[in-house]
UniProtKB/TrEMBL annotation:
Belongs to the nlpA lipoprotein family. It is a lipid-anchor. SUPFAM superfamilies: Periplasmic binding protein-like II (SSF53850). It is found in: Membrane. Keywords: Lipoprotein, Membrane, Palmitate, Signal. This is Lipoprotein. PROSITE patterns: PROKAR_LIPOPROTEIN. Its main location: membrane. Residues 1-23 form the signal peptide. The lineage of its organism: Bacteria, Bacillati, Actinomycetota, Actinomycetes, Kitasatosporales. It comes from the Bacteria. It comes from Streptomyces incarnatus. Gene3D superfamilies: Periplasmic binding protein-like II. InterPro entries: Lipoprotein_NlpA.
């Protein structure tokens, strides 16, 4: 039986407060961390928690790992909870997002093992092809810096816009050099992009939120991110200093096992792609 606890940013807002109170004294050392007991991992519900629960149900016991999964519906609390020790690790993010988060919030989260890619996609309830978007169409994009830039890069890669030279991982609509369709952009929280589809002409949606909303990226996306040389693969992460936690090492090994690869390929049918 699964022992998965679900949390939201509102419920665990105290985690962020705890971080603010303890960060000054904690530095980036994890030398006092207790490595006994279950390994508690924060994860987005889909596909991260689903993958972890497969490991928990099918692989962990044999490997001698007591794994607990806590689901979070936002992209902030998993890192603050990992930083303040409320959880031992997290599994939900990519390197550009983590770099931006650590830089802006002073956290010390580091990747352990890369597991999968969720291709970012453009979806619409109003048109069936990207080139069918009318002049002046409104596109919803995630409002966090990294995912907004990623969304704009997706549109640029498919000829809908042209970005200025040098536009990087913090690109915004102000970095658009050419916009032949005069597209307008509505910035919304990443988790809300699927819900915005009834209110806009199209939306760029992160893979996990697309799957959670019942969308099928491999089949329904008007355009989809290429998996080739993609820097946005998702990984297991811990607070710096906990990389050698024997429980983390066990989980890392299981997450890149043939059994997990088959599970991802069979369950997600190309909407989630193993990165190992």
């Amino acid at each position: 039986m699964r022992n998965t606890a679900k949390f939201t940013a509102a419920v665990l807002a105290t985690g962020a407060l705890t971080l603010g109170l303890t960060a000054c004294g904690s530095g980036n050392s994890a030398s006092s961390h207790d490595y006994s007991g279950p390994l508690v991992v924060a994860a987005s519900p889909t596909p991260h928690a689903e993958i972890l629960n497969f490991v928990k149900d099918k692989l962990a016991k044999k490997a001698g790992l007591d794994l607990q999964v806590k689901e979070f519906t936002d992209y902030i609390t998993p890192n603050t909870a990992t930083e303040d020790g409320s959880v031992d690790a997290n599994y939900f993010q990519n390197q550009p997002y983590l770099d931006d988060f650590n830089n802006k919030r002073g956290t010390h989260i580091v990747p352990v093992v890369t597991v999968h890619l969720e291709p970012l996609g453009l979806y619409s309830h109003k048109v069936k092809k990207a080139d069918a978007l009318k002049s002046g169409a409104t596109i919803a994009v995630p409002n966090d810096a990294v995912n907004e830039a990623r969304a704009l890069k997706l549109l640029a890669a498919n000829g809908l816009i042209t970005l200025k030279p040098g536009a990087g991982n913090e690109a915004t609509p102000q970095d658009i050099a050419k916009n032949p369709k005069n597209l307008k952009f509505k910035e919304v929280e990443a988790a809300q992009t699927p819900r915005s589809l009834d209110d806009v002409d199209a939306a760029v949606v992160n893979g996990n939120y697309a799957i959670s909303a019942g969308l099928k990226p491999a089949k329904q996306a008007l355009v989809l991110e290429s998996a080739t040389n993609n820097p946005y693969a998702n990984f297991l992460a811990v607070k710096k200093g906990n990389e050698k936690d024997p429980r983390v090492k066990k989980l890392a090994k299981l997450l890149v096992s043939p059994e997990v690869k088959k599970f991802i390929e069979d369950k997600y049918q190309g909407s989630v792609i193993p990165s190992f």
